[in-house]
Every structure is written in C-alpha cells, then in structure tokens.
Amino acid sequence: MNGSRRTSLNISAVALTLALGALVPVTPAHATEVPGNGKEPSTGQEGGTDNKGIYAAARVQYSGAVAKSGGTGNVTSADVNWTPPSCWYAPYLGAKDFKKEMSKNIEDAKNAPGMTGHAGAAIGEMERHYEDDYGWTDTPGYKDYNVDKDGEGMFWAGVENPNEPDYLKRTACSDLPFWVENGEPPPPQHEQAITPEMLAALAYQHMELPGTKVSLAPEAIAKVNLPTWAWLDEAAFDEVQATAAINVPGFNIQATTTATPKSLTLAPGTEDATTIPADGECPIVDGRIGEPYAKGKAKETPPCGIVYRRSSGGETFPIKAALTWEISWTGTGQAGAVGLPDGTIEAVQNITVEEIQSVNR
C-alpha cells in the first residue's frame, strides 16, 4: 500500500536520525589512489558489513594523476564558488544482500535500549517500507526487500565525501536506500544521484599536478634595476589526466578530467618591484612560458620576469609562482569536452636582491 504523503518516515527528525544512525551508518567512500597517468583504476569495494553496519558496494575508483590515500590534490579552483559534491547517492547492495543486512539491523535496533516512542515508531515504519510494500507519494514501498528482483537492480544509498569539511553538507544525502533497475536512471527526487559530471568534479578534487618550479636567472641573487628572467621548462606543459569511475553490475559510468597549462603568474614578494608583463601573467607562447636567459642578454627585457627596485637588505624576497591550468572533462554520455573552472598550483621560491653599481653577466 501507499500513503498519501511522507508521514511514515517523518515522525520526527530526531527519531529518523536515531533510526538511520542505528540502521544504516554508511561508510564514506574511500578509494586507494593510484598515482601517475596510465595506471589501472583502484580496486572497488564490495557491499557488506563491518562493526559499524552496512557499507556501500560502489565506491569511486580513481586512476591517473591523483593524490595518494584518497586525499585532496594540489589544485585550487580559480572560481572560489566552485566545489565538488559533498555527498552523493550510489549503488549500494543487491536485493538479497540488502535484505540480509537491513533486516538484521532493523531487528537489532528494535531491541536496542532507548528505541521506544518516536524512534521505535520510525524503525517500525521503515520495516513496513521494505517488507510490506508501504510507500508514500513519490516513493514506492517494497515487498520483501525486492528479493524477487535480485540481479535486476540494486538499492542505492548516500555516500559521504570524506574530504568535505562541513559535517552538515557531508551528511546531507540522508534519504533511505532506494531501488534502481539496471540500466534505468535513479528516481528524479534523488537529485544527488551520482553522475559523470559529479565524477569529473571528484577527479578534479583529487587531481595532483606537477609542482611549479620556475627557472630564474640570476638563480638566487638578483641585482637591483636589472631584470630577473623567469621561464618554465617545456616538460611542465604535458597534459595531465585524472579519472573517476563507478563500476558495478548494471551501472558503469566514468569521467576523465584533463588539465592543460595555460599561464604563469609571478608575484615578486615586495611592492618595490615591476613584473614583466605588467600584470605578472606570462602566457604560453610557441609552447613555452618565458624564455631561458642567455649570456649577453643581461640588459634586455625578458618576455617574463621581474625587475627589483630595492635590495632585500640581506634577507630574501618570496617569489610566488602560480601556474594556471585549463580544466575540462569528458565522460559517459558526453560527446565533447566540457569546461570546468581553471585550476592553479602555487610555489614559493626565495631570492636575494643586492644593490650594486655595475655588474657583468
């Protein structure tokens, strides 16, 4: 039977929270990262149970240039308002496995101390939802946990992004596990169901780009009013890719995020300096940024560099070099590349500036 509105599982927010916490503490989807392009994806996790309860069957698998141990990569989005998903819904367990784990947890919760009143009622309604075909307006109930459809689909559940610092955002995907037929999209009310675009954002979050080591001439000791040349080795311009995927029976999607170097921005570490170009942004020209210094060019103006107007007084100035990467993604069901916000990585190099009347170099 179906209720006319969502009354069954909204007896009270506190009761539902208690019931869900006792029944379905879904373990966040951690992945063993594999660094380097061209590597095989990390191994996925099968659904099952541990001392915390049921955990999701489908975790995101990462490959390519990604941070180790599931950590956040070294790329900062140029758009401060852009964020990767805090949580999502993903394939969870097949019908028989879901019944085994959920029914056991329901029974344990019913017998747990304090599970009376609203919390106990919420657990009872949840049991009816999965066993006795009790649903509501936009959510059908299930007869015997859909075991007669085992192999034809999976129950999906919420998964936390372990790298999301905001607890409320991380735990916002709190809908009860729901059934999705193989090859069919998740019900539209579950807006955070995993998509290739979300996988692309997760690949972006985990992407690890090469460090920005700028070549300088002079390398460590610059001279007042003489240009310091700056350039990047051509090896820094290799395209970098990271892939995120979910692969379980009946549901396979993936997205590859690609980063391509775009420009280098220099900050001299003092207001008493002039950057070349004036805005400090050195674009890629003919496949390189800047130009290597050569003997005899000491008084020429480099295409990328800094002119210091005073000495560092025996100390150093921190040159901040920010390499901007153009980011795009392709993936399942996506015909062409789609743009994402540019990403940047920064590095600081210290340089001593001396004042001298004349110099030859």
Give a summary of the structure in a few sentences.
With 361 residues, this protein is α+β, with helices and mostly antiparallel strands. The protein is built from five helices and 18 strands.
Describe the structure.
There is one protein chain. With 361 residues, the protein is α+β, with helices and mostly antiparallel strands. 16% of the residues lie in helices and 32% in strands. It contains 5 helices and 18 strands. It has helices at residues 13-23, 95-110, 117-131, 167-170, 196-206, and strands at 48-50, 53-55, 61-64, 76-77, 87-93, 153-160, 178-181, 215-217, 221-223, 227-231, 240-248, 251-267, 273-276, 281-285, 288-289, 305-308, 317-331, 338-354. Strands 3, 4, 9, 11, 12, 14, 15, 17 and 18 form a 9-stranded mixed beta sheet that branches. A hairpin with a 2-residue loop joins strand 1 (48-50) and strand 2. Helix 1 (13-23) packs across helix 3 (117-131). It is elongated and about 85 Å long.
| Fraction of helical residues | 10-25%
What structural class results from the helix and strand content?
alpha+beta
Major β-sheet profile? 9 strands, mixed
C-alpha end-to-end distance: 88 Å
**Average pLDDT rating:** 82
* Regions with little confidence, pLDDT below 50 for 5+ residues: 1-20, 24-56
Task: Produce the secondary structure layout.
Layout: H1 13-23, E1 48-50, E2 53-55, E3 61-64, E4 76-77, E5 87-93, H2 95-110, H3 117-131, E6 153-160, H4 167-170, E7 178-181, H5 196-206, E8 215-217, E9 221-223, E10 227-231, E11 240-248, E12 251-267, E13 273-276, E14 281-285, E15 288-289, E16 305-308, E17 317-331, E18 338-354
Parallel strand pairs: 9-18
Antiparallel strand pairs: 1-2, 3-11, 4-18, 5-6, 6-7, 8-10, 10-16, 11-12, 12-14, 12-17, 13-16, 14-15, 17-18
